[in-house]
Amino acid sequence: MIQNEPKQVLKKYGSSFYWASQFLGKILSQKVARLYKFCRYVDNLADSNNPNRELLLNNIKDHLVNKDQKNQPEVVKEFLDLVSECSIPVHAAEELMEGMLSDQGSVRIADEKELLRYCHAVAGTVGVMVQSILNCSERQSVYFAVDLGVAMQLTNIARDVLEDAQIGRRYIPSTWLDNEPERIAQKNLSDKEAISNATAKLFSLAEKYYESASKGIYYIPMRSRIAIAIALKLYRQIGVKLVQNGTQWWKGRTIVSNKKKMLLSIISLNCIVPKKVPLHEKKLHKYFQGLSGANEL
Q1: Pick from 93, 81, 95, 70: which is nearest to 34 by CA?
Q2: What is the dihedral of CA 71, 77, 80, 81, to 10 degrees?
Q3: Average pLDDT, the chain
Q4: Is the pTM higher than 0.90?
Q5: Closest to 97 measured CA to CA, from 51, 173, 43
Q6: d(CA 176, CA 198)
Q7: Domain assignment of residue 165, yes or no
Q8: Which of 105, 166, 187, 206 is the most exposed place for a label (fewest CB within 10 A)?
Q9: Which domain holds residue 48?
Q10: How far apart are CA 198 and CA 49, in angstroms?
Q11: Structurally, how many domains does the chain consist of?
Q12: For residue 1, what pLDDT is reported?
């Protein structure tokens, strides 16, 4: 692995995360970038046109489960090295792979439970892994880390309603909106309001998890706290901006400007002041029972 390659991948695909990672320091930012590289690789594979992508994803998962070094893909070897260095719970990565595999074929999310479990699989698990890299010692810290991942994924889904529909995916639950992806992709005038309302509901749900995650920031070691606070505020701003603009999902992705990133970064400095963290709200994890990082009811 080329030393700076993970950071280059992070900079190319995750501008908000790259911005925030600069506040972690050289060693931790490199480790987070290595995790991002693995996650980005499997995410790109899951979304690719490769006819063998499901087979390849299952192969990666099998290597994670069995840790068999024979014919081990380089991306898996690099990730397992990081697992060993940072005591990352590998079952979180296994759940991540399950999430990627669930994206194969057409996607029609049925209800809020399925939506949240999907968000946990593809992003809450990443929160679990990141908090291991950051050496969070408080037992409850992982619950809040899961919440941040879930909130960010809900934001992704709301931001990418049109893009996902164009590739046959609808993550908005049928109980909220029963339009087929093909119809959403047509951007019919008669459907815009209903889809906007459902998209706004995604942000409303995300806010519950952002609110929880923002409280858990104070469990993170001081050296890393600002970086995570910045990442939270930058991602949250995507939703804020989209809602302020009337949730116009048909216009494509909403981008946070560099000027706004700088302002939010400055605001994030207030997390330096210690605060007592309240107990985590268990009801936020009612659908996550048995999954990595879940607060058991």
Answers
A1: 81
A2: 140
A3: 94
A4: yes
A5: 43
A6: 6
A7: yes
A8: 105
A9: 5-285
A10: 29
A11: 1
A12: 55
| CB atoms near residue 112 (< 10 Å) | 14
Distance (Å) of CA 78 to CA 64, 83, 249, 283, 294: 11, 9, 37, 36, 27
* Residue 18 lies inside a defined structural domain of this protein: yes
pLDDT score for 3? 55
Q: Which residues contact 41 (CB under 8 A, 6 or more apart)?
A: 75
Q: Where are the beta strands (DSSP E) in the chain?
A: 107-108, 169-170
252: left (phi over 0), alpha (psi -120 to 50) or beta: left
Cα(first)–Cα(last) distance of the chain, in Å?
42
174-214 pLDDT per residue, tens: 999 999 999 999 999 999 999 999 999 999 999 999 999 99
Structure tokens at 242: 């989209």
CA 287, 289, 291: angle at the middle one, nearest 5?
Answer: 105
Strand runs (DSSP E) across 85-200, as ranges?
A: 107-108, 169-170
Tens digits of residue pLDDT in 225-275: 999 999 999 999 999 999 998 999 999 888 888 899 999 999 998 888 888
Q: What is the CATH number of the domain that holds 46?
A: 1.10.600.10
